[in-house]
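Lecture 7, part 2: worked example. A protein chain together with D-xylitol-5-phosphate.
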Amino acid sequence: MPKQPIRIAPSILSADFARLGEEVRAIDAAGADYIHIDVMDGHFVPNITIGPGVVKALRPHSAKPFDVHLMIAPVDPYVQAFAEAGADIISFHPEAGPHPHRTVQLIRSLGKKPGIVLNPHTPIEIVDYLLMEVDLVLVMSVNPGFGGQSFITSQLEKIASLRARIDAAVARRGGRPIDLEVDGGINFETAGHAIGAGADVLVAGTATFQGGADAYAANMRRLRGQAG
Ligand code: DX5
Ligand code: ZN
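Predicted complex, written out as structure tokens:
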């Protein structure tokens, strides 16, 4: 099975919120593969960020896939609004509703790519009967809610186990890929560990946006370069 390239998904949570459109254009031009958008509700996680209106406002600023990470409960009533706002990938936490499989179907029915997110404590078995239906699995390497936290190293083992399960599922579905994304505490050191364990998409907020717009391209190149 051909390996997917390492991709970088800057989290705009670390961008300057007063200049979000400009920031999205800057990371796009600097080589971002996905635009990672963290949606928090102050209920499922202890922070409030952005809603579908902001996603819609940002859509004209980049043609790159919008990787929308929903940290909200309930999730189902809001999926359509994010789909219509221009999300390409819509990821959610299985703890956010009683019927995760139905949420996956809902996202798919709207023509979007479903992703399932595992919190640091969430056992990998939760993906067993979802994996064939999703396009992305996101491993949280911090507890969701804030940027700038430290990478939880126990998640490396989870990434490695998921790598094997994803490879088997991808083979069973005729090679249609499933991204293995890692989110939280990715820096120039932990990027190498996550890639080594089998991740192929790295979310990076602090690490991408450090040093101002002139550094974005070099930051992302350096993260991607931690492979091998
Ligand atoms: C945390 C968010 C992450 C976060 C990453 O709840 O899902 O995307 O912004 O930020 P850094 O890269 O700074 O850990
Ligand atoms: Zn995120």
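The first helix runs from residue 20 to 29. The pocket of D-xylitol-5-phosphate (ligand 1) is lined by residues 11, 13-14, 36, 38, 69, 142, 144-145, 147-149, 183-186, 203-207 (CB under 6 Å). Keep this in mind for problem set question 3.
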